User: What shape does this take?
Amino acid sequence: MGGSMTSGEHCASAIEIQELDKWYGDLHVLKKVSLSVEPGKKIVICGPSGSGKSTLIRCINGLEPFQQGHIQVGGVKLDAPAAIQAVRRKVGMVFQHFYLFPHLTVLDNCLLAPVHTGLRSRAEAEAQARELLERVGMRDKAQAYPAQLSGGQQQRAAIARALCMDPEIMLFDEPTSALDPEMVMEVLDTMVMLAERGMTMVCVTHEMGFAREVADEIVFMDHGEIVEAGPPAQCFTSPKSPRLKAFLQAVV
Ligand code: ADP
Ligand code: MG
Assistant: This one.
């Protein structure tokens, strides 16, 4: 790790984003975004729809190209295709829509990446997948197909699948937004469990209870900019910007 580092200055960061600018055509969707995430920290990104949250998360994982600025993940600078592959190996991603492979069982969904990439033998991967499925409360669903599961179960399976690649960092993009209300808590509980085990996490979510409980830092975005950032106690009780105030009144 950190082989391409020259200064060591940012070695401590799990994620280091400097002055990131991204456009879709003429649309300026990320504007000089800078963000530093230390290992083990939990960041919650919130903000109105269209403010650039998903785009930022996708840039961190190398899923979106960007035009200006720098992103470094786990000591690897995202600047070349090989680096993108290296970064993706360090980062687990959980989306709003679970994207499990419908034709594979939960267990086989979990085995695909670690076995295909050669990270583990099939036997090792299976032992680890079963352990992770147990951890997310899905042990008895290992042989089920996604269509046989509730949304909450599918999302917990998706979390287990991501964990099977031994990620250093987990990115969540509105993981509970597509769920029926009664299933939100089981997924948030799984995320809290991960947080308590020390995972570095960046979560886009509007679950402010989760944010209060888990986040070290709240990052509020609007129109492609980070408008305000700080600990939950400060952002929620005494927001500085009128835009964050208005947003909190709307979501809480
Ligand atoms: P959020 O996740 O905060 O709702 P997004 O990152 O999805 O916001 O979108 C930010 C802006 O970029 C929005 O104006 C959206 O319409 C636009 N956008 C997102 N994806 C694309 C795309 N693939 N092509 C063009 N515009 C996009
Ligand atoms: Mg989004």
